[in-house]
Amino acid sequence: MNSLEVLTKIYKPYNVIVKGNTTIFKCTSGNYAIKKKCNKDIRELYNYLNSRNFNYYPELIEDNRDEVNVYEYIEDASISDEQKLFDLIDIISLLHNKTSYYKEITNDKIKTIYEDLLGRVSFIEDSLNKLIFEIEDSVFVSPSCSLLLINSSKVFESLVFLKKEIEEWYKLSLDSNKMRVSLLHNNLSLEHYVRNDKEYLISWDNYTIDTPILDIVKLYKKIYLKMDFSEPLKIYMDKFTLTEVEKKLLFIMLVLPDEIVLSNNEVNNVFIVRSYLDYIYKTENLIKSYYNMND
């Protein structure tokens, strides 16, 4: 008998709902969320968050079973996605403020980050050049490829900007021997923010310690297509003041696009290219107010 079957006998739910990798028990004694254990110690995480006066997470009911953890299940109040985004920015800036500290960083480590960033830009540039060569060499140019060709100069322009910014970030970073890190949720999305009697961040399975800007970058890449991020970004930067080095790295990582990978379905390809270009243009609009016209 596996853990879920055992828990069913213990809690006797009158309704069972499966949402992704979470099983929800609706019981007379309360509602519970059962999730498969990750390779992180959630109890240790909660103890640390408590020590930092941050308690915006669901209660861990059971963690003594081999396969799963049992949490209290929080019903989400009905609020708009726009409001939820602003609330999420508030709570994540609080998390970063409560858990941030500086650690020493060597020039070798800075150089490794610098070379990794340049390597990612070069990889995207090479793959884009290869794709454009294939398009130009083809007899028939599909609508998606035509769209990419027309806008390719804007993509290359963003890559030139990235190379310049990475060089400047590297020079600035070498003047410092420390780096600010904080506890990251590392899986931010609107679905992982819940509001009821109070605010909660759920799904902490990927938490880690790293530069706080990674939370913001990952959140932006999930929502850029459907929501404006300019005001939430401003609020975050007001609540969690970034150094010049952090701010430059944030903008680099925001602008840095993923590799464009086309499929065998032209309808899908049009969406892929359009989304890719939307990311380039939207991100440029997002950060341009932080630069002067000469930049």
What's this, in brief?
The chain has helices at residues 3-11, 42-51, 81-99, 107-137, 143-173, 213-223, 230-239, 244-255, 266-287, and strands spanning 15-19, 22-27, 30-36, 60-62, 68-72, 101-104, 178-184, 193-195, 199-201, 208-210.
CATH topology of the largest domain: Aminoglycoside 3'-phosphotransferase, Chain: A, domain 2
**Distance from first to last alpha carbon:** 63 Å
Query: Mean pLDDT, rounded to whole units?
Result: 92
- Gyration radius, to the nearest Å? 22 Å
Element order: H for helix, E for strand: HEEEHEEHEHHEEEEHHHH
C-alpha geometry:
globular
For the biggest β-sheet, the strand order reads: 1-2-3-5-4
Walk me through the structure.
The chain has helices at residues 3-11, 42-51, 81-99, 107-137, 143-173, 213-223, 230-239, 244-255, 266-287, and strands at 15-19, 22-27, 30-36, 60-62, 68-72, 101-104, 178-184, 193-195, 199-201, 208-210. The mean pLDDT is 92. It has 295 residues and is α+β, with helices and mostly antiparallel strands. It folds into 2 domains: 3-73, 2-Layer Sandwich (Phosphorylase Kinase, domain 1); 97-290, Aminoglycoside 3'-phosphotransferase, Chain: A, domain 2, CATH 3.90.1200.10. Strands 1-2-3-5-4 form a 5-stranded antiparallel beta sheet, covered by helices on one side. Strands 6-7-10 form a 3-stranded antiparallel beta sheet. Strands 8-9 form a two-stranded antiparallel sheet. The chain is globular. α3 (81-99) runs parallel beside α7 (230-239). The chain contains 9 helices and 10 strands. β4 and β5 (68-72) form a beta hairpin.
